[in-house]
Specification:
Blueprint (H helix, E strand, L loop, with lengths): L1 E13 L5 H6 L1 E12 L14 H12 L7 H12 L5 E10 L11 E8 L3
Antiparallel strand pairs: 1-2, 2-3, 3-4
Helix pairs in contact: 2-3
Length: about 120
Amino acid sequence: MLTRIAIEEICCYGRHGVLAQERELGQEFRVSLELTADLPPAGGDRLDDTVDYRLAVALVQRIMQGEPRRLLETLAFEIARELLALPRVASVRVKVAKPHPPIPGVRGGVAVEMTMPRGD
């Protein structure tokens, strides 16, 4: 049975961006996930029968706190690719947001959203 699991706004600090100041000072990022998982019918109530959310959050934090990337697109792709390696995950949607980009006039932040099925 396909089940949708959402993990909203994982807050991370990273040194990602095109500008030197972004890479030097770092900034806050927020990552949201939607995992589609092939789960057995409800009733077992066992962690082994689902996706362990803790593993997904730890994976996001490791990537976001890791090697600086210039593009949000690169971060979203790397997160999506690794999430698809988790057991039972059939597809992922990853949204990487930069709430306070160094772009004059932008008040609501910028974000990249990517959807990837298993097998890509």
